[in-house]
Specification:
- By secondary structure, this protein is mainly α.
- The protein has 3 domains: 224 residues, Alpha Horseshoe (Serine Threonine Protein Phosphatase 5, Tetratricopeptide repeat); 219 residues, Serine Threonine Protein Phosphatase 5, Tetratricopeptide repeat (Alpha Horseshoe); 80 residues, Tetratricopeptide repeat domain (Serine Threonine Protein Phosphatase 5, Tetratricopeptide repeat, Alpha Horseshoe).
- Helices cover 62% and strands 4% of the residues.
- It is built from 26 helices and 6 strands.
């Protein structure tokens, strides 16, 4: 197997061979030469968010050289996972406390001014104050280190990460995204095998207006650090946003398989696998028309729920008792455990039903794991003409959209509430009122950030609007709404199918054929016998 150089320190070139292909980093330091391989392996894992392995490596370096200040820096850094919206402050502080009793004492043990800069940064990250204040201080301190050492790849890379940890939501983050991305691009240009550079480019440009700039890093990162499951997943962030379904699915399938191998290597249960990549993969399979695979993916989660602890066997939320949780918008909700797995199961069951339109499979179901599955129950009830169930679902959405609920749950629930109310009105034949309600839903969705992963809400308002317009013979208007759906979620297969039908019904044969061709390209690996494929092929004869 090819050797991958992950370190160059103390004037020594060190390499790690075997299966840990993690990229190439250079981090000069004053630690013992014997501790370098473990320390630099820890840095490489840290850049690819392999936190458990990073902690192991940094602790191994500490054991070899107990006075190695940056080994404690690295362990503490591993307890801050800002782009996953998670941190363990007490554990980070405990890691630093092993080096010395006070920040001043710990910083003094760093033997160079540069190392002291890194130590000041981590002390700010785990110092006093609330999370925003600590992360702002971390970013400010790393900015000073980066300014003092402009040619230092690690100073620059961790400055980029520190900036990304301070991002506000939505378009307000664009200036920080551009700044962090530009920093990471310079490192990437100097060292095309740097795992952090490629990784932070992908996070920085994880936005519809910037995603094209992420594609070179997306195509490189998986080859830089294939030992890291997260490194295999991250390219999907770019591929999904531009509708490259085959590339996105390949990324997440590789990530899922790597997480299986990782959990086995560490002797962990199947609940420790990276279900985040599987949830993304399941959505990507829906876009490829691989319906049987999407259903199989749900079984993996349900199997893990049986092994994740005693809570796993508790019933999910009854239809008349209110839902909980919601589908993640970016990296929210990562990890294992019953709550995360249950949320994943709900989202996956919802997408399977909604994308395949197999409404009858939800007939009689009275529980849901999150509001995405609740919406699937409601949409199934509409299509099964079960008015009483539709009304029950609407009442549950009103509870989820109540002011007392968490902001992001409430935001999505309100959009889906208006969609459900519109569907109820439409089923009653009150079409004008239904479209007025859809206008309200569209306005609410327009205020939300554009999805950077699986779309939210689970059924795009523009897409649903177009489908309802087709049902009442307003095909030309439907074209506009499907175009809006595709602008928000490029190349989405069901929106493309709706667009093809809208053009066909509007008498625009050329554009209908083009849309059907694009759908068939998406469905190149689709299950045999899908009605959408049959319709598209018939239209192209």
């Amino acid at each position: 197997m090819r050797r991958v150089f992950v370190a160059a320190t103390c004037a020594l070139a060190l390499s790690v061979s075997g299966q840990e292909r993690l990229g190439r980093v250079s981090f000069s330091n004053s630690g013992n030469a014997a501790a370098q391989a473990d320390f630099l392996r820890g840095v490489a894992w840290l850049h690819s968010f392999g936190y458990e392995d990073a902690i192991d490596a940094f602790r191994a370096a500490q054991k070899i050289d107990p006075s190695f200040a940056l080994a404690y820096w690295g362990e503490a850094m591993s307890f801050s996972q800002p782009l996953w919206f998670f941190e363990e402050v007490d554990k980070g502080r405990a890691a630093l406390a092993k080096l010395g009793a006070t920040p001043e004492a710990r910083i003094a043990k760093a033997k160079t001014a540069r190392e002291q800069g890194f130590m000041r940064a981590v002390e700010a990250l785990f110092g006093p104050g609330d999370k925003p204040a600590r992360h702002a201080a971390f970013a400010q301190t790393m900015a000073k280190v980066a300014a003092e050492y402009p040619a230092d790849d690690e100073a620059q890379a961790f400055h980029a990460l520190a900036l990304l940890s301070t991002m506000p939501r939505g378009d307000a983050a664009l200036p920080i995204r551009r700044e962090a991305g530009a920093i990471a691009e310079k490192v990437f240009a100097r060292n095309p095998d740097h795992p952090g550079a490629a990784h932070y480019i992908l996070h920085a440009y994880d936005h519809g207006s910037l995603v094209a700039r992420a594609l070179p890093a997306a195509r490189a990162y998986a080859t830089i650090a294939p030992a890291a499951s997260h490194a295999l997943h991250m390219p999907a962030h770019a591929f999904l946003q531009v509708g490259f379904w085959d590339e996105a699915a390949a990324s997440d399938e590789a990530s899922w398989n790597a997480s299986i191998a990782w959990a086995k290597r560490r002797g962990l249960s199947i609940a420790a696998r990276d279900y985040h990549s599987l949830v993304w993969l399941q959505y990507e399979w829906t876009q490829q028309g691989r319906v049987s695979k999407t259903k199989e993916a749900i079984a993996f989660v349900e199997q893990a729920m049986k092994t994740s602890g005693p809570q796993a066997l508790k019933p999910s939320s009854p239809l008349h008792a209110g839902g909980h949780a919601y589908g993640e918008q970016s990296e929210i909700g990562r990890g294992s455990g019953d709550a995360a797995l249950r949320n994943d199961r709900g989202s996956m069951r919802a997408r399977y039903i909604i994308e395949s339109e197999r409404w009858a499979e939800m007939q009689g179901q009275t529980t849901f794991d999150n509001i995405e599955e609740l919406f699937a129950l409601g949409l199934s009830a509409v299509n099964l003409a079960d008015a009483a169930r539709v009304r029950s679902v609407i009442e549950e959405f009103r509870k989820a959209a109540a002011p007392a609920q968490a902001a992001e749950l409430r935001e999505q629930a309100e959009v889906m509430l208006r969609e459900m109310e519109a569907l109820e009105l439409f089923a009653q034949g009150r079409h004008d009122a239904a479209f007025a309600m859809m206008d309200r839903a569209a306005a609410l969705q327009a205020r939300m950030p554009k999805p950077i992963g699986r779309p939210f809400p689970v059924k795009d308002v523009n897409e649903l609007y177009g489908e309802l317009l087709l049902q009442v013979g307003r095909a030309k208007e439907a074209v506009l709404w499907f175009d809006r759906a595709l602008a928000r979620t490029p190349n989405r297969s069901r929106a493309m199918f709706g667009l093809a039908r809208a053009y066909r019904n509007a008498g625009d044969a050329a554009n209908a054929r083009a849309a059907y061709k694009r759908l068939l390209a998406n469905y190149r690996l689709a299950d045999a016998g899908l009605p959408e494929v049959t319709e598209a092929r018939d239209a192209l004869r």
